[in-house]
Amino acid sequence: xxxxxxxxxxxxxxxxxxxxxxxxxxxxxxxxxxxxxxxxxxxxxxxxxxxxxxxxxxxxxxxxxxxxxxxxxxxxxxxxxxxxxxxxxxxxxxxxxxxxxxxxxxxxxxxxxxxxxxxxxxxxxxxxxxxxxxxxxxxxxxxxxxxxxxxxxxxxxxxxxxxxxxxxxxxxxxxxxxxxxxxxxxxxxxxxxxxxxxxxxxxxxxxxxxxxxxxxxxxxxxxxxxxxxxxxxxxxxxxxxxxxxxxxxxxxxxxxxxxxxxxxxxxxxxxxxxxxxxxx
Length: 280
Description:
Layout: E1 6-10, H1 15-26, E2 30-35, H2 42-46, E3 50-53, H3 59-73, E4 78-81, H4 96-124, E5 127-132, H5 145-165, E6 170-177, H6 184-196, H7 202-217, H8 222-234, E7 241-244, H9 250-257, H10 260-274
Parallel strand pairs: 1-2, 1-4, 2-3, 4-5, 5-6, 6-7
Helix pairs in contact: 1-8, 3-4, 4-5, 6-7, 7-10
């Protein structure tokens, strides 16, 4: 048992998850960093962060992981649902099994963990559920249909959950990262080219791959997201949404005043212009 607040952070082996685990640990939390790649979390373990094997697509792994935390610490005060990846490719090309996996990782695993920790938070009369979405949860770009579908779903799920849990003293916050320096872009670009790089969409796909590569050359540090998550975990009145970095929110401002067709034209124009050449 511990008297300090306890946080569970998924996707803790790298990027946003690792930065968040460190930040919450520095702020006095007992932190459990969970991921499939335990070997990637040795440095976190050496710093005093507790590491835990967890596969968000395996229910036994999720239930067992939460049970371990409750047995050891007796509580879960903060759940940071960060595990996820970007499955990219033209919708007609993406195998349906890959689509299912994208939903399992980005949405179902997140939801199942919420189900597992909510009863304990509700009984304690307090808690924070922090769901890492994306700027792509309120916007969309070509070739990311499955990814955007899951992130839009995370946004809607979080908005509904927030209303359900508010009477029990449990807050729900949504984190919307823009371009962040993690493994996300490498995985998304690889999926994109492997799935649709030689088919009917190949010209637009290669252009969009270059666009993504250029966009992420200016990516922000994972620490900016970790700072936002830490605020959501500790503030007396956390924000409902944190868009990070702040510059990423400009697209939402634009969408407020322009028609959907105009936004589509701007999105495609930016993708084509940034996708010209190799950018090197």
